[in-house]
Amino acid sequence: MHGSRSLRSSVAFCRGRRVKCVPVSPRRSPSDDRLSRQRSPFRIGENATFLRPFVKWAGGKSQLLGQFQALYPKPGSVGRYLEPFLGSGAVFFHVQALLQPSHALLCDTNAELIDTFLAVRDELDALIELLRQHQKQHCESYFYEARTHSPQTRAARAARLIYLNKTGFNGLYRVNSRGIFNVPFGHRVNPTILSEALLRAVSIALQKAQLHARDFRDLSAVARKGDFIYFDPPYQPLSKTAKFTSYTSGSFGEKDQRDLAALYAELDRRGCLLMLSNSDTPLIRELYADFRIHHVSARRMINSDGKKRGPVSEVVVLNYGPQTSRKPTLRPR
Fold first, then answer.
1. Residues 214-259 pLDDT 10s
2. CATH of residue 139
3. Which H, E and C letters describe 10-76, residue by residue?
4. Do 319 and 235 fall into the same domain?
């Protein structure tokens, strides 16, 4: 049978060839699954928790959430949350647990990513079953076969993205100019391909969220006074050789950065609460000179050269004074 093997052996037959495979975690028991469905996705209070992203994304903000917490608007002031560069959704899950907005509008230009979030929200059981199949057949040759496959259904596309994200090199999502995923095999030991309890909690968390594959410029037509909007665009490169904007087959250049700054100013005049992350460069400081610029320190881990992974200064731009009252400390689930 394709992909079948003993966890005690490092050799198996995968897609008809003798290969070295990586063992995967055993399936959860039915009792564990029933327990996960009974739990609320969040616990707010002394032991407050928030959801971890179910995919890893270049530039993800999980490590910065502790610093962001002091920069959010005050709890109770946010009715609707908007995020036009969704990525892994780390900030959305954190804001939802901490500020508890009643509605959310989540967008990204990466249509496959948005399809994945929609499948988690609306087609969870089918997605979980497909991930089980990927888990059973996982090995290097199967990875490369999946990488070239073009699934026809939303659930299958979502399962493919999650599988490749969990098993590709360094958790990197990258496509070429034709929009084809081109990250090599990751050689991870015992990768967690299916996190069923987390996916079920995320599905619940997304029920009140609208999800769309849209350009950030479309936000002008839907944003209204009082909305809290977080922008996490592809960063302005720190140098000519530091570019990494290939989350989609397009690019994000200086004109896009200037268009985004113009939108930020427009939404400020409209009365929205705005928070934006970007690299600490002269251009970004110039574009947002009229607003409050805060600095945070991030350790960037997704780089093909390990020597270039390390702490960097980033800016967070606000158009409001961050509230200073003590917020509950949250910890990831």
1. 999 999 999 999 999 999 999 999 876 555 444 455 689 999 999 9
2. 1.10.1020.10
3. CEEEECCEEEECCCCCCCCCHHHHHHHHHCCCCCCCCCCEECCCCCCCCCCCHHHHHHHHHHCCCCC
4. yes
